[in-house]
Design goal:
- This protein is an alpha/beta fold.
- Helices cover about 45% and strands about 20% of the residues.
- The chain contains 29 helices and 31 strands.
- The chain has a four-stranded antiparallel sheet with strand order 6-5-16-18.
- Strand 20 and strand 21 form a beta hairpin.
- Helix 2 crosses helix 19, helix 19 packs across helix 20 and helix 22 runs antiparallel to helix 23.
- The longest helix has 29 residues.
- It starts with 10 loop residues before the first helix and ends with a helix.
- It binds one RNA strand through helix 10, strand 27, helix 20, helix 22 and helix 25.
RNA sequence: GGGCGCUUAGCUCAGUUGGGAGAGCAUCGCCCUUACAAGGCGAGGGUCAGUGGUUCGAGCCCACUAGCGCCCA
């Protein structure tokens, strides 16, 4: 074995073998255990959030697989409509072409080509992370069978009227020229203006204060071309006389009514609001209440039309409405039109004033373009009937959120859920299975032939398929059952629906989680998963969100392989939206990573993610932790070298029954470490079942490093090296060394798969196992009988003596090489027994020249003192150290004890405490006080003793 | 405006039913002790954001305040 651990030599080797051997497949036996991957975008690459969640999913998957469950990690990717179409369009643009140079089919073919050539990035990165999904079942939302499921769901929902088509106001993205759903709109606080316009009153009407106009305030002056009313608060006394009267709308010369509606806040501005039902969601509702005309003034690219399109609510066109728009605005972009209109109001002396104003601006989450509410025909899912059962299954506990209080977020959204706009004006995606005849009648079925057959339509009737595709999340919502073969009846649908746990971030609870619950309940009658583990969000070390534009992104692969400074700088500064940020990012990067990033290996990265997975909703990624866990892996590596060095070619009692073999004589340390292993195993399982990977990691780390490496390996040395140990004793210790290490590797494997496999393979010949790979070996089984309190007490005694001596050495700067003599004062019978039994351990670990029990009648020479319970540990200091140093050291101890003493006596002197607290607590405090007083007395004596010399 | 969360050691974070403030990293000291210097051993370091309340007893429960963050409108 190499003298140090190097992940690069072991990781890929084992992954290839596991995959080639088919180790990632469900076994078919045991209880079904299934995790569905949140399908990443096929365009994407693996970021820290993925790496984090994948580590959790893989740890759970490996754990359950080793426990013998029929374990499936279902993987796959999402076609990501807009994102993917953008990528391919950008590539065409780079070649001087554009999407519309091609037919729809040609373009889609190009997307498929791109997907084949570069869509596999994530799956390769997942392999680097050690992920163990069943690759043979890898699914893609545009695959034939998933597309079939999408079609089937659409048709069924249409038939029961849960899917409908309607002309409504939608969030329109002028860049993509597509509708998007509410969820895809981000609201940003931005600076803008509030323009106050004078709207002349018609028919010579006047306000109470004698003006011939009303003042309306708006942040979007250009929409005035589509105003259909001015509204006031019905209670507003200022305008009572004008309700039902009219405005002469400037520029377009249209009469529009003055209406009263509760929507208006009379405190805000002038209390008069312009109502533009076709370009504002609130105004839409007002318009609906008052049956105002919907006046659309924008084209799909958000430029002003020559003639407005006017409709009634319900979608019927109004032909006789004055729809002519001023010629000077025709074809102008909405923001150019804004400027021109403000200027025109100003020149007409109708601009009252302009104020700075902060407002919420809706932007598309992908395009970052300002969203325009636009009146269009779209397909919707009516969510009301789906939402109710989806709320119920969380309420009744069929689905459980972890941490629990995410259910509040879920309920809040579900209780206020809006109908879901599912049509998108894109080419890449699942095309809507609807056909129209020339009269505009709509027919829904799987294909044109079926449409004709089902509706008795002759071949002469021309049918045209809907051009739109479905929202990407529509297919994602079917993931839990579509990946299992639905609508076919498959064994997987039986076994793996519901899946066991969904591991995901809170950012997609609405986008994905809620919709999966609704759809899976609707189409399978079952919940999609029993638990939802909501992970925190990975942030940088300062708590900032990792983003390309901030230049603080870490690539998980770079942490695994390492990266030099220069390529890292290039990576972080290239392709920025705002190139000006490059200098700043470069500077920060050079400062933080002056040496680049070291290679830490996958296992260290995975262990870090697990250790950071607490209940916190933000996780600040700490690079120091990764380094620490790499060192930890090196520790395991070297512990293995030690074990092999002492057991290779020697009799380790392979195949003997540890509970019934005379040939194995276990030391106190052997017995202790076996018990400790089982305690750690139990802790790991408890915490893992509660998704507290941080606590699980801590339990493993403490056991393997502190107990096994720091204590047990040291305690094994005196047994192995002493001439006094017999062969059965040595065999017992060798057996324990090897078997606990081997079990420990199985315990650690789910979290750190690579280094454990490498080590396990080397230990395999020495233990009884029939597995080829650690990942198929059984997970250790908890054995409560291995934990013996008497054994633990003895080890505690040994440890406190050794620690006592080390403490004296450390404090007084006595070199660890220098053997010291040890005197034990006030030794009880138990102490004497222990000393007799365990002297070898003490001498070896505390590096003792000699150890003696001081007879009660004898006075001790000047010594440095530590206490182990009532036992006094004395290290004679003659010639070793300065007496004053020890006097000072004792004083510090005495001060500490005095404080403790004061606290305890105060508490016990308080009658209310003694009377009210539970007896056990009072008893405990009393005992503590006695101990403290005894210890204090001893130290004070000892200090006096020293001073007298 | 509504909802949720956070504030504990220099840093990143644990702290289970209220009963002796913890870990990792960083710092300091001693040591290249035959598994490991990517290491060992030891040490120092906290007014648990603030105020008030409940309680014999509060990091934990309650109220308020301050600061930070997220989601929704």
């Amino acid at each position: 074995m190499d003298t140090s651990y190097s992940p690069e030599n072991i990781e890929q080797k084992w992954y290839k073998k596991w995959e080639a051997d088919g180790n990632f497949k469900a076994s078919g036996d045991g209880n079904p255990y299934c995790i569905l991957i949140p399908p990443p975008n096929v365009t994407g690459s693996l970021h820290m959030g993925h790496a984090f969640q994948h580590t959790i999913m893989d740890t759970l998957t490996r754990y359950h697989r080793m426990k013998g469950d029929n374990t499936l990690w279902q993987c796959g990717s999402d076609h990501a409509g807009i994102a993917t179409q953008m990528v391919v369009e950008r590539q065409l643009n780079a070649l001087g072409q554009k999407r519309t140079d091609f037919t729809r089919d040609e373009f889609i073919e190009k997307v498929w080509q791109w997907k084949e050539s570069s869509g596999g990035t994530i799956s390769q990165q997942m392999r680097r992370l050690g992920d163990s999904p069943d690759w043979d079942r890898e699914a893609f939302t545009m695959d034939e069978n998933l597309s079939k499921a999408v079609q089937e769901v659409f048709i069924q929902l249409y038939k029961d009227k849960t899917i409908y088509r309607g002309k409504r106001l939608v969030n329109w993205d002028p860049k993509f020229q597509s509708a998007i759903s509410d969820l895809e709109v981000e609201n940003h606080d931005e600076k803008g203006f509030m323009w106050h316009f004078r709207y002349p009153l018609a028919d010579g009407e006047k306000t109470l204060d004698g003006k011939n106009y009303l003042v309306v305030a708006t942040t979007r002056p250009e929409t005035m071309l589509g105003d259909s009313a001015v509204a006031v608060d019905p209670k507003d006394e200022r305008y009572q006389n004008l309700i039902g009267k009219f405005i002469d709308l400037p520029l377009v010369n249209r009469r529009i009514p003055i209406i009263a509606d509760d929507y208006v806040d009379m405190e805000f501005g002038t209390g008069c609001v312009k109502i533009t039902p076709a370009h504002d969601f609130n105004d839409y509702e007002v318009g609906k209440r008052h049956q105002l005309p919907l006046i659309n003034i924008f084209s799909p690219t958000a430029t002003v039309l020559a003639q407005a399109e006017v409709f009634q609510f319900g979608g019927t066109p109004i032909d006789d409405y004055p729809n002519q728009l001023p010629e000077k605005y025709t074809g102008q972009d909405r923001f150019v039109a804004r400027k021109l209109i403000v200027e025109e109001f100003d020149s007409l002396n109708l601009l009252e004033k302009t104020e700075d104003h902060g407002l919420m601006v809706p932007r598309g989450d992908r395009s970052h373009e300002i969203i325009e509410p636009l009146l269009t025909d779209q397909w919707y899912v009516a969510t009301a009937s789906l939402a109710k059962p989806a709320i119920d299954v969380v309420k009744n506990g069929e689905i459980k959120f972890v941490p629990e209080n995410w259910d509040k977020t879920y309920y809040h959204w579900m209780n206020n859920i809006q109908d879901w706009c599912i049509s998108r004006q894109l080419w890449w995606g699942h095309r809507i299975p609807a056909w129209y005849d020339e009269q505009g009648n709509v027919y829904v079925a799987e294909d044109e032939q079926t449409v004709r057959a089902e509706n008795n339509l002759s071949d002469e009737i021309i049918l045209k398929q809907d051009d739109d595709v479905l929202d990407t999340w529509f297919s994602s919502a079917l993931w839990p059952f579509a990946t299992m073969g639905w609508p076919e009846k498959t064994p997987e649908l039986e076994d793996f629906v519901p899946s066991s746990v969904l591991v995901t971030g809170f950012d997609i609870i609405f986008f994905w989680v809620a919709r999966m619950i609704m759809m899976t309940l609707k189409f399978t009658g079952k919940v999609p998963f029993k638990e939802i583990y909501i992970t925190g969000l990975i942030r940088d070390e300062n708590g900032d969100k990792m983003s390309k534009s901030k230049g603080n992104v870490l690539d998980p692969i770079d942490l695994i392989d390492g990266i030099e400074l220069e390529p890292l700088v290039v990576k972080r500064t290239s392709g920025l939206m705002n190139p000006k940020a490059a200098t700043k990012i470069e500077k920060a990067t050079r400062k933080q990573f002056s040496e680049g990033i070291e290679s830490y290996g996958t296992d260290a990265l995975r262990m870090t993610f697990c250790a950071l997975a607490s209940t916190s909703r933000d996780i600040n990624f700490d690079l120091g932790r990764v380094e620490g866990y790499k060192n930890y892996c090196n520790k395991l590596w070297n512990a293995t070298r030690f074990v092999l060095m002492n057991t290779d070619d020697k009799d380790c009692g392979k195949g003997l029954d540890p509970k019934a073999s005379e040939q194995l004589d276990f030391s106190i340390a052997d017995k202790w470490i076996i018990g400790r292993f089982n305690q750690a195993l139990k802790a790991f399982e408890t915490h893992t079942n509660e998704y507290r990977f941080d606590l699980a990691t801590k339990a493993l780390f403490q056991f393997s490093k502190n107990d096994y490496c720091d204590w047990y390996l040291e305690l094994s040395k005196p047994v192995l090296n002493s001439e006094e140990s017999n062969e059965a004793q040595k065999r017992g210790t060798r057996y324990t060394l090897v078997n606990i290490l081997e079990s420990m590797m199985r315990l650690l494997h789910p979290m750190i798969p690579f280094v454990t496999e490498e080590i396990w393979q080397r230990l395999k010949p020495m233990v009884a196992t029939s597995s080829d790979s650690i990942m198929l070996a059984p997970f250790p089984i908890y054995d409560a009988s291995s934990i013996d309190q008497a054994v633990n007490n003895d080890i505690d005694w040994i440890q406190s003596l050794i620690t006592g001596v080390r403490n004296i050495r450390g404090e007084l700067n006595i070199s660890p090489n220098k053997p010291v003599n040890l005197l034990l004062k006030n030794a009880a019978e138990e102490d004497q027994r222990r000393l007799k039994d365990y002297q070898g351990f003490l001498s070896s670990l505390a590096r003792l020249e000699s150890v003696k029990i001081l007879p009660t009648e004898e006075t001790a020479p000047p010594s440095s003192t530590a206490l182990a319970g009532t036992l006094e540990i004395l290290v004679p200091v003659a010639g070793l150290i300065d007496i004053d140093a020890e006097v000072n050291r004792l004083q510090k101890e005495i001060d500490k004890l005095n404080n403790e003493n004061k606290r305890l006596s105060g508490k016990l002197g308080n009658a209310r405490f003694v009377d009210n607290a539970p007896a056990a607590i009072v008893e405990k405090e009393k005992e503590k006080l006695v101990n403290t007083e005894q210890a204090l007395a001893k130290l004070v004596d000892q200090q006096q003793e020293l001073k007298s010399h």
